From TrEMBL:
The keyword Transmembrane applies. This is DUF3159 domain-containing protein. Residues 37-49 have a biased composition (Basic and acidic residues). InterPro entries: UCP010219 (IPR016566). Pfam families: DUF3159. The chain crosses the membrane at residues 71-89, 101-122, 129-147, 153-174, 206-227, 233-257. It comes from Actinoplanes flavus. Residues 37-56 are annotated as: Disordered.
Length: 271
C-alpha cells in the first residue's frame, strides 16, 4: 500500500494519537513547573525509620543537660568568685571587717553571674543555665547579707538538693519514677510509653533511687560543713565534689538506659 493510500480511519487515529501525546506532554510539563515553583515533593509514608530523627548520642545528652564544658565553668565562676573574695578580703588576709568582705564577695559573685548572662545575650546564645544560676546566686547572696554569715550563701542550694531527693523518692513510692519521665522528654520525643515496658520501668525505678542517693550525698556533705560553720570549705566542696558526682550519676544513667533499650532492640530483631 503506497503512502497516502491508507484507509481513512487509520489516518484519523494517527492524528488523535499525536494530539493525545501532545496534551500528555503539556500536562507533564505544567505539573513539573508547579512542583518546582512550590517546592513540592513526594511525602514518605509515616512511621518508616527514615522519617524518624536520630536520638541524641550519650555525649550529646550529657552535654545538653550539663550545658557542656562551658556551662560547668560558667556555673562555677560565681561560687568561685564568692569564695576567693571572701577569703582574700577577710580578716585573715586583707584584714577587712567580716561584713565588708562579705559585701565584696556578694558583689563579685552576683556581678560575675550577671556578666555571664549579658555575654550570652549579646551573642544570642541560650541563657537558660545562666538564668537558673543567677536566681540561686541572688537568693544565696540575699540570705548571706541579711544574716551576715557567708555560709548562708550556700543554704538555698543545700535545701533545694534535699528537696529534689525527697521528690524523687516520693515518685518511686507512687511508682511514677521521675527519671523515666525525664528520659521520655529528653530522648524519646516526649513519648511516655515506657510504662508498658516492664524492664524499662524497673530500670527507671532503681535509677530514680540512685539519683536520690546521689543528691542526698551531695547535700549531706554540704549540710555537715554548714553546721560546722565552714563557709569556705562549703564553696570548695560545691565546686570540686558536687559537680563530679552529678556528672558521674548522669553518665551512668544514660549508659544504663542505653544498655536496656539496645538489648531490647536486638531481641526484637532476632524474634
Amino acid at each position: 500500500m503506497t503512502s497516502g493510500s491508507e484507509p481513512r480511519h487509520v489516518a484519523h487515529e494517527s492524528v488523535e494519537e499525536r494530539l493525545s501525546a501532545m496534551f500528555d506532554s503539556a500536562e507533564e510539563k505544567i505539573a513539573e513547573e508547579i512542583i518546582a515553583d512550590h517546592d513540592l515533593h513526594e511525602m514518605k509514608p509515616a512511621g518508616k525509620p527514615d522519617d524518624e530523627e536520630p536520638l541524641p548520642s550519650m555525649s550529646e545528652q550529657i552535654a545538653e543537660q550539663l550545658g557542656g564544658v562551658r556551662g560547668l565553668v560558667e556555673s562555677s565562676v560565681p561560687v568561685l568568685a564568692f569564695v576567693l573574695l571572701n577569703v582574700l578580703l577577710g580578716e585573715s588576709v586583707a584584714g577587712l571587717e567580716k561584713r565588708t568582705a562579705l559585701l565584696w564577695a556578694i558583689i563579685g559573685s552576683v556581678g560575675s553571674a550577671l556578666a555571664i548572662g549579658a555575654v550570652r545575650l549579646a551573642r544570642r546564645q541560650p541563657v537558660r543555665h545562666a538564668v537558673n544560676g543567677l536566681f540561686g546566686i541572688a537568693l544565696g547572696a540575699w540570705l548571706a547579707w541579711r544574716s551576715g554569715d557567708a555560709k548562708d550563701f550556700y543554704l538555698p542550694g543545700i535545701l533545694l538538693t534535699f528537696g529534689q531527693a525527697a521528690v524523687l523518692l516520693v515518685s518511686v513510692a507512687f511508682r511514677k519514677p521521675l527519671i523515666g519521665y525525664a528520659w521520655g522528654i529528653m530522648a524519646n520525643k516526649g513519648k511516655q510509653d515506657w510504662f508498658g515496658n516492664g524492664r524499662l520501668f524497673r530500670t527507671f525505678q532503681w535509677l530514680t533511687v540512685l539519683w536520690a542517693v546521689s543528691l542526698t550525698t551531695r547535700a549531706g556533705i554540704q549540710a555537715v560543713l554548714y553546721a560546722m560553720d565552714k563557709a569556705n570549705a562549703l564553696g570548695i566542696v560545691r565546686i570540686l565534689v558536687s559537680w563530679p558526682i552529678y556528672a558521674a550519676t548522669f553518665a551512668f544513667t544514660v549508659w544504663a538506659i542505653h544498655r536496656v533499650t539496645s538489648a531490647q532492640r536486638r531481641d526484637t530483631a532476632v524474634a
